């Protein structure tokens, strides 16, 4: 938890939401899964999605969105929030959203990972993976995922999680973690369900 004495509109202790594991199966929630495919299916345009500040956390913690989505930045707290999106060290967008104000909207026109912080609260973070194709998924509370309409063939499939091993305190005293990944081979057959199990996430060169 992070103590917060400087903002009276946020609780004094915020539970961290970067790591959720189903104890019975060790299923890992909020892991991003990407199928490495040359196929690019056309997706609907004018898509909309939401990232909200609620309970002095950014929710959802991780999501994937199609390229071109209009992202609505919503503040449901009594505190002010300043959303700040990075790709590696470059700023992609910023937006200050006051309590009870209208949502700010930002178009997601750059593919890849977005790391989103709140500049006012160092524990607040979210991740968005912006993709030009839909061969992407995020694991649920059971640690499971589903991808539909994948053409038959052999593929590489990658799983990424922001990590749980502390790496360092950043320049703004944010706690950083070592990203964990795994890459597997999968064969998809016509009209059959394929199963992939990621059971050994390790530190690999990260796309972040």
Descriptive overview:
The protein has 208 residues and is an all-beta fold. The protein folds into two domains: 17-41 and 141-208, no CATH class; 45-132, Cupredoxins -  blue copper proteins (Immunoglobulin-like, Sandwich), CATH 2.60.40.420. 0% of the residues lie in helices and 48% in strands. The model is unreliable at 1-5 (pLDDT under 50). The protein has strands spanning 2-3, 13-14, 21-22, 27-28, 32-36, 48-54, 57-59, 62-66, 70-75, 81-87, 90-97, 104-107, 112-118, 121-131, 136-138, 153-161, 166-169, 175-177, 180-188. It starts with a strand and ends in a 20-residue tail after the last strand.
Summarize the topology.
Layout: E1 2-3, E2 13-14, E3 21-22, E4 27-28, E5 32-36, E6 48-54, E7 57-59, E8 62-66, E9 70-75, E10 81-87, E11 90-97, E12 104-107, E13 112-118, E14 121-131, E15 136-138, E16 153-161, E17 166-169, E18 175-177, E19 180-188
Parallel strand pairs: 6-9, 8-14
Antiparallel strand pairs: 1-2, 3-4, 5-15, 5-16, 6-7, 9-12, 10-11, 10-13, 13-14, 16-19, 17-18
Q: Helicity, in percent?
A: under 10%
Structural class: mainly beta
Kindly report how far apart the N and C termini lie: 24 Å
Label the overall shape: globular
Regions with pLDDT < 50 over 5+ consecutive residues?
1-5
Q: How many structural domains are formed by the residues?
A: 2
Report the total helices: 0
Radius of gyration: 18 Å
Mean pLDDT: 85
Q: State the major sheet.
A: 5 strands, mixed
Strand order of the largest sheet: 8-14-13-10-11
SS elements, strand count: 19
Q: SSE string, helix = H, strand = E?
A: EEEEEEEEEEEEEEEEEEE
Strand residue content: over 45%
